[in-house]
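cron nightly-structures :: item 1 of 1
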Amino acid sequence: MYGYDWPRLHAALNDLPTALLLMALLFDVAALATKREGFRLVSFWTLVVGAIGGAAAVISGLQAEEHIAHGEAVHRVMETHEQFALITLGVFAVLALWRIVRERKMGRAERSILVAFTFVGVGILFVTANYGGRLVFEHAAAIPNKVLEEELHERSEGHHHDDGEEEDTRAAALDSLTQPAPAHVDSPGTPPHTHSHPPGTPPHQD
């Protein structure tokens, strides 16, 4: 992968391990609460696959760092994001290895300790994600200067929606639904009471 492709790949790889590691914790808690074997198995595999996905996200992130034009402010946030990402990966790598070795031998006390460490790992994961979000939403990291300049130019010109016309149309439609039906008027020459109307027709105005 070269150039701008690395940041795109890093962005694509971030969500899956985050979701898997969070679900691993939730299924761990469910397994402890219900003692159901199915929850334990799901938590095991989501943790292992999530840790592998986390490694892929970290590797792509390290490569993306080398291909993003940035200043000092972005660099500081990026370094903090990287440090927390490495800590997160380390915690979940240890947890995954722990479970691979001890999964079928754990007692309830040991599994409770493991779940407690998983809580810690998820907390660090959220801090990592927060710094990643700051890179994008506060500093526009990985957005090429040309694209950013064009976007700033378009924002300066403004973008207007026809909200007024839409509101008028909606109000007119609502009025047409809420207005009472007009009173029935017979045409000249119609014999009196020689025709009938559906139920609910307003009284005649002859």
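cron nightly-structures :: done
The chain is about 70% helix and 0% strand.
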